[in-house]
Amino acid sequence: MGTTDKYDAIIAGAGHNGLTTACYLQKAGLKTLVVEKNDYVGGAAVSRELHKGWTYSNCSYVCSLLRQEIVRDLELPRFGLQVIPYEGNVTLAPGGEYFGAYGNHDAYRREMERFSVKDADAYDRFSRIIMRQCRFIRPFLLRTAPDPTSLKPRDLGELLFMIKRMWDLGRREIDETLRFWTMSIGDMLDEHFETDLIKAGTAGSGIIGTGLGVYSPGTAYVLLHHYMGDVDGSVGAWGFARGGMGAITRALAAAFTEAGGEIRCGSGVAEIRVSGGRATGVLLDNGDSFQAPVVASNMDVKRTMLKHVGREHLPAAFAKAVENFKIRGSSGKINIALDRLPTSDTLPDNGKLFCGDYSCTESLRHLEKAYDEWKDGYWSSQPYFDMLIPSKIDPTMAPPGKHMMTVFTQYAPYDLNVDGVRSPDNWNEETRAAFAKSIFDRLECVMPDIRDCVVHAEVRTPLDIEREVGLTEGNIFQGELTFDQLLFNRPVPGYAQYDTPVDGLYIVGSSSHPGGGVMAAPGANAAREILRRKGLGRRMPKLASRWEE
Amino acid sequence: MTRPNTPDTLVSVKIGMIDTPFQPMLEPLSESQAWYSWAGYKSATSFRNVDLEYFAIRNQATVFDISPMCKYRINGPDALRVMDRLVVRDMKKVRAGRVAYVMWCDEDGMVIDDGTAFRFAEDEYVLFCQERTYKWLCEIAWGFDVTVQDWQSALCGLAVQGPCAFSVLKDAGFASIEDMKPFDLRQVEPGLWISRTGYTGDLGYEIVTFPDHAPPLWHRLREAGQRWGLIPIGYEALDIARIEAGFLAPGRDFQPSHKVSRLHRGRTPFELGFGWMVDLSTGHFNGRRALLEHAAKGPRYNLVRLDIEGDAPAGNAYVYAGKSFAGHVRSAAWSPTFKRNIALADLKAPWGKSRKKGLWAEIYVEQEGVWQKRNARTRVVEGPFMNIPRARMTPPQAY
Hints:
The complex is a heterodimer. Chain A has a domain at 4-44 and 62-82 and 242-324 and 481-539: FAD/NAD(P)-binding domain (3-Layer(bba) Sandwich). Helix content of chain A is 35%, strand content 19%. By secondary structure, chain A is of the alpha/beta class. In chain A, strand 13 and strand 14 (278-284) form a beta hairpin. In chain A, helix 1 packs parallel to helix 17, helix 3 (105-113) crosses helix 4 (117-137) and helix 8 (196-207) packs across helix 9. Chain B contains eight helices and 19 strands. In chain B, a hairpin with a 2-residue loop joins strand 15 (318-321) and strand 16. Chain B is an alpha+beta fold. Among the domains of chain B are: 14-67 and 155-233, 2-Layer Sandwich (Gyrase A, domain 2); 300-381, Elongation Factor Tu (Ef-tu), domain 3 (Beta Barrel). The A-B interface holds A 68, 71-72, 76-78, 82, 84-85, 87, 103-104, 231-234, 242, 393-396, 400-401, 545-548 and B 49, 51-52, 55, 58-60, 163-164, 167, 227-229, 309-312, 334, 336-340, 365, 372, 374, 387, 398-399. Chain B: Pfam families: GCV_T, GCV_T_C. Chain B: InterPro entries: GcvT/YgfZ/DmdA (IPR028896), GcvT/YgfZ_C (IPR029043), GcvT_C (IPR013977), GCVT_N (IPR006222), TrmE/GcvT-like (IPR027266). Chain B: Residues 303-369 form the Aminomethyltransferase C-terminal domain.
C-alpha cells in the first residue's frame, strides 16, 4: 500500500546531476519530485560524519569540473557552497625521491630542473597543448551533443559549431586533436618527457576512475577530462568544497526546495512505470507510487534501463548497446580520521607546501603493472593512490589540530578474483581488510607513521560504492570516458540527447554527455532538452558564455 | 612634534618607504616580496599568492597590518559635540565602547573622506581613516574644549579576519570577546583594544595597540593561528573581499574632495549610496546646508553595485544605457566566493536608481596578444553582494 501523487516530473536519485535537473525543471514551473534511496541527498557528492568530529567526503572528494555558470545561475553560494582551491601537489616515490608540483610557475620549473632541464622546457609546451585542447572542448560541456545522422536544424547547427571549431584549429591541429583524443597518456608523456617520476606523477590524471592502464588508448583524453575544469577561471585548478563535497548537493537541494520542489529520501525507485511506450511514473521500494509524464533518472544508464525498466519496453538493439556500455569498477577508497599529520621524512618541512594531492608511484611501468593485476581480477599490489588532507586548509573537516585524509586508490576490481573465480561476492570482511592492508602498506612506504595516526578508517571497495551510491560496478564516472562513449556516442549512439526509447524517460546523470566528475553539466543540459521537448525551452536560462575563452 | 634642524640633529627625512611596528615580523614571511607604499609605509601587496590569501579570508583566518591608517584622537569634554559637528551621522547614538562607520563633508556637501570612529570613552574618540585630515579636524574643533592629536605613529593595529578569526583570538587569550557584537569595542588588556570590525564583510576583528606591544601581540597570534590556518595577507586579496562586501575605497570609488584639483569631482553621501547615514534632523554639522539642497534636488550620480555578465572583471569599463553613456565602473572583481562578476559603478542619475534596464558594460579582454571586446549585460544589485550569516553571529562560530 502506498500513496499516489501526481507531478510534472520525477527525478530518480538525488545526486548532483539529478538535483541540477530538478532545480531547472522546478524553476521552469514544473512540479518536480526528487526521490532518493538513501536517507540523505547527495549521491556520490556527500559529506558524512562517520566518526564523531570528522567529516568525510567519502566518495568524490575534490571539485574543479563543477560548472561555474550553473553555480552562479542557481546562486549556490547563497545556500552555503564555497569552493576553496588548493595548490601544491606532490608525487612520492617509495625510494625516497619526490617531485613537487608547485603553484608558482618559477618554482615548478626549478623543481623540474632538479631532474631534467629538458623536461622543464618540455613542460611549457606540454601545458600549451593541453590548454589548447581544453579551450577546444570546454564550450561543448554546456551544449547538447549533435546527432550526426539528423537533419534537424538544431542538430545541423550544433554539428556546424563543432566543425567550425575543428576548422579553426587548422589542418595540423586537427590531426593532433584526433591523435590526442585516441592516444594513451603513456605514449603522450613519453613524447614529451624523459624523467620517469615526472611522467608517472603526471599520468595519474589519465587513469583515475577508468578501467584503463597508462598505455591504453584513450587515456590522454581522460587526463584532459581532469584538466578541463577550473576554479574561478583558472583552468586545470582543483579545489575542495568547504565542509566536504556534500556542500554542493546540500546547496542544490536547498535551491530546489526554495523554488518549491519536493525531495523524498529513504526509498529508492523499484520500477519506472511505462505504458504505451511512455514513462508514466515510478514505483518506490516502499510501495509508494508517483505519477509524472517526465521521469529523469540520475542513475547510470545501465542501472536505469536494465534494472528498473521492463525489458519488453526496450528495442533489442538498444538494450544490447546498454548492456555493452563500459562501466567497470576500478577504484577503491579509504577515508581516514587522523590524530595528527603523518610524517614524510623525505619531504621538506613535512610537506607543508603541499596542500593538494599526494600520489605514490615511481614510473609508468609500475602503473601499467598495477593495471595488469586488475585485469586479472586482483587489486594492485603496488597501487596508485591520490591522497589528500583537506583539513590542511578546510577547518571544518576535523577538530582543530586533527586531520582528515582521503585516499583514492587504484586499481581495485569489482569482480574480485579468489582462487580463479571472479565475482563481486568475493568482497567480504576478510578481503576488504586485506585490501586495506595493501593500501596502508603502500602508504607506509612514504609515511612511516601513518598507522599510528589513524583514529578511524572507512574502507570502500567498488562493491561498497555500488551498493551505497548505486554506481554500477562502482565506476565513478557512470561509464568509461573513452572516445567510443563520448559526445554523440554517450551513453549509446542515437540516444545522446538525454532521451531513451521510452518517451518521457531521460538519463540525466554522468552516463550522458559530457560525462563524469562533479560537473552538473549533464543535469543542466538534460533539463534544457526536457524543457525544449515540452515546448518550454525559453524557460531554461542560457548558461553558455557568449564569448570565446 | 617638531624636529628643528640643528647641527646635532642634522639628518634628512627617510627617503622611500618606512616600516610599521609589525613590519620586522612580517617581512621574513613574504615569499613574493611584493610591497607597495600605503601612506609611505611599506605594505604587502601579497605574501605568496593572492588567490590563496583571498580564500584564507573566506575560509580560515588572516592577518593584515592596518598600522598605516591615519589615526586621530579627539579627547575632552566637547568630544561628542566635535564629532557631531564633523560627521554627517548622529553620533549621540553611538555609545562608548562602540564603533561607527562615518563620512565627513566639506561646505559643499562633498565627501572629504570616510572612516571609522572608535568611541573609546564618553569623551574620547579615535578616528581611523585613509586621508590625512589633521588640519581639518583642528579647524572643526576650534573653540571647543577638546584636544585633537595626530596618532598616526602612536598606535598600530592588525585586522584579524575570516571565519576562524574568533577561534584564533580565543586561543591567543582573548576569549572574553566572545559576547562582542559587530561594531563593539573593548579594552581587553592594558593598552590593547579589540573591535569587531573589518574591511572584509566576514567575521573579523581589529586589534589596536601601542607600538611596543606589537611584537608580543604578533607572536601570540602566530602561535594561536597555527591550528586555524592563520596567514598574513596583502592588499590585493583584501581588495577582492572589500568589493564583495561593498566597502568603498577612497580615491577609487570616490574622490576625496580635498584631494582633487578639478572641479565637480566630488560626491555627496547620497550619491555614494549612504543617504541612510545622513541625519539632517539633528542640527548643524559640516556640509548640512548644502546636503539639504542636494536632498531636495536629488542625486546627480548614483554609485551602484553591478552584477555583470561573463567572468572578465570590468575594471574601468564604460557603462552604457542603450546607446548613451551612463558612467564608469570604479572597482571591479570576479567574486571567487559568490561566483559573480561584480563591480561598483558611478552612474549619472537617474541611471542606477529609477532607471535600471538596458545597462551594459564595455569590457576589453586581452587574450594572448589580441583584444576581445565584450558588451556585457549588467544588472543593478540592491543590497550587498554577500550575505554570510557567520559574520554577524554572536557568539561567533568556531569556523
